[in-house]
Amino acid sequence: MTLSPYNVSRRSFLTALTAALAALTLSPRRLLAAEDSLIRKTIPASGERLPSIGMGTSRTLEIGTNQREFEALVDVLQAFFANGGTVIDSSPMYGSAERILGKLLDRVGHRQQLFAATKVWTDGKQAGIRQMEQSRELWDIPRFDLMQIHNLRDWRTHLDTLKAWKAEGKIRYIGITTSHGRYHAELEDILRREDFDFVQLSYNIDNRAVETRLLPLAAERGVAVLINRPYQRGFLFHEVKGKPLPDWATEIDCTTWGQFFLKFIISHPAVTCAIPATTKVEHMRDNMAAGHGRLPDAAMRKRMVEHFERL
Questions:
Q1: Could you tell me which residues are beta bridge partners of residue 200?
Q2: How big, in percent rounded to 5, are the helix, strand and coil portions of the chain?
Q3: pTM score, two decimals?
């Protein structure tokens, strides 16, 4: 393992050693097998490829000082990285999430593996700059890979800043987000007029509104797509509770409903990465398993929707 000068100077040898020891919990054979089956999607703006399953932090990392909850999240983050994860998304909107994430990264390491994505969520240029710098300090990273304008808030002001920061190398990609259908028309107009590397929006097997215009537009404009609320905040599991997974799900290497839902999302050609959030190790491992193996084609996707709608 190569130690970057940043890791040595900022967090010392112990943090990097923790990361190295965690990596050794998987045998070389298991690591190779996981790598071979990992589904990656391409960022159109650069050609860089990302694992198709990332990690969200809304609600799940909004904890207080409960040490038991924190230790459980340490295990969750270790499972994320051990199973090929890189993309972690957060926001100042998510309460203590960024502060907790920084502390988790101190324990787990893997900052060199991280694709760090957060958002600016305030009004005004200077307030935005202060907020983004604070986020960077909380994560304790030299720069963000992706900075997004959260829910279109003061987007014109922040876009000017993000363009300048990207040109200066302070961030790698710029994006814009929404998790609300009421913003879709405005978001479409913005994407047609402005150049973004990423867009983040809500999409799942029960909420497919973005299939009509926004996902095709993202593909047309060469914009990578992050998907939030992939389980519709747990609603999808409520709908399938007590119901067996169809036998034909094995054709796309699905063994659970969670994998079924995630594979539907990431199999859309315009989607780059889904970012489910969880506080449980077993759920994290299940989420990450969806990012391996076979994906449904168009005919299978239709079959999945029809099956879900009959439940």
A1: 177, 226
A2: 50, 15, 35
A3: 0.89
